[in-house]
Amino acid sequence: MKLLGISTDDLHNPPMVRAFVMRLATLLVGIAIAMIVGYWLATGQNFYLTCFVAVLVVVLVAFGMQRKAWILIPLTFLLTGGIGKLPIPLAPRDLGVLLATTSYVAYRVLSQENLRPKPHVLDLLVGLNVIYLAFNLVKNPVGFLIFGSQSIGGRPVVNICIALLAYWVIIRLPDTVTSVSRIPYYVLISATVVSGLSLLLYVVPSLTPAVSSWYAGLDNSAYINMIQGEHGIQRLKGLVTFGFQLFLVLCAHYSPATLFDPRRGRFYAMVLATICILVAGFRNFLLWAMAAVGIGGWLHRRWRELVLAGFVGALLIALLAFGQGRFYQLPETIQRSLAFIPGRWSEAVVADAEDSSTWRFKLWKDVIEWRLIKDWWLGDGFGANLEDAIATYGGGKGNYREWIILSGGFHSGPLTTIRYVGICGMVLLYLLSISAAFYSYRCVNECRGTPLFPVAIYFAIQLIWGPVHYTLVFGGYDGYLPELLFYVACLRLLFRMSDELKQNAVAKTRPAPAQSIASALA
């Protein structure tokens, strides 16, 4: 007679007894869970069902994906909008990082493997920034409106904490070169999701309320124009995410001159990426794309091809600008992206571009003249005082500029950094970003000739141009630091994987130990 696969004769065997107990316990737990879930379904207790599903997902990811769970971080990296149906509007990126962290903890509990990487100077610089930020939060505490805090606007602190968890997991959990080499494609998938949803809302604006109730952070300008009856420049802002990421992937994998060869498929991929950037109407992203071509060619060491690509690219942009208003009329959103180049642009585009620049220059001037930053050395912290927010927006009289002044998002990397963490924090941030740029170049040289070479260039482009763009073009401390932590974590990961590749190569080339005399005579 057998019960749960165990006969009565096996009851005298301790291992079989333990197996019997485990099977019986699993059966009883399964029956209990089925009965409880059935009761919740019958009584309509949706809250408990939601909690059960959440716990089930966590358990399946933690024990199912194990060391592959880190892939959730780049897969959700660009999905930063809040999920409205959750009790707390966490973003998919938050959930991806938390699931990966849970999986890491579960793997460390069940495995005796040492996952601690070698210390690096970048870890020290990250630690200094974190310690200073903690000091700043003690000096300038910030909370959340839903918790009744007097100082509101603590979301940047949550984003930075999430980025630190991602940093902790990424430098430890990945274990295969193949999966690490695919990181740019994982990020491109999240960019495709964001741009695809934004394009859907542009084509069918009436879907905006329904989609936004599930996922926030998408471009809803088409819906606003439909409601208000405005007919300004129709920019497809959401497409820039996909176009920019696709451009980075192309510049990382291919030398620049080959991108302009119409006989290759990569040329048409570059055209698609360029169109997505142009129709979004962002001048700074077009500048980013031009920098990506230049830095990518430099890192590929194709100097001759880089000069040729630069000449061809500049010629194409010049011809595009020269023909505008003379031989053809480009859409206004594309004209806006090219408006920094001399040309016959429409009056509406010129006015819109000049207003945007003038507005920012005046804002920066007012920040300095009106002394809107109280503590220039240590910063004023994140967020704003609740009473000031109520006074500003009481009766719905507040506008976007007033909120920018109140919250500190001055559309300038250095000014936002000084506003939040002061000059001391800005020095630490630049120390980390410039060091990361230097080490990214070293990483590219170490990964040259390996499958990690393209992904090393992918991050090096962003780490080298990032501080320049952040300082001279556009940036915000609350968004730049979490992204920088992710890039630095991936850079640390590439150094570790490169070292492992070198060790494996040395082990393969090492001669086999000589046989003993006894074995040779046998």
List SSEs in N-to-C order.
EEHHHHHEHHHHHHHHHHHEHHHHHH
Number of helices: 22
The span between the termini is 53 Å
Backbone CA Rg: 27 Å
Low-pLDDT parts are none
Fraction in helix: 55-70%
Strand order of the largest sheet: 1-2
Overall morphology: globular
| Proportion in β-strands | under 5%
Mean pLDDT: 85
**Main sheet properties:** 2 strands, antiparallel
**E-strand count:** 4
Secondary-structure class = mainly alpha
Summary of the model, kept short:
Helices cover 68% and strands 2% of the residues. By secondary structure, it is mainly alpha-helical.
Question: Could you characterize the architecture of this molecule?
Answer:
The strands form 2 sheets. This protein has a two-stranded antiparallel ribbon. A two-stranded antiparallel sheet has the order 3-4. The radius of gyration is 27 Å and the shape is globular. The relative contact order is 0.09. It starts with a strand and ends with a helix. Helix 11 runs parallel beside helix 13. The protein has 22 helices and 4 strands. 68% of the residues lie in helices and 2% in strands. The model has no long low-confidence stretch (mean pLDDT 85).
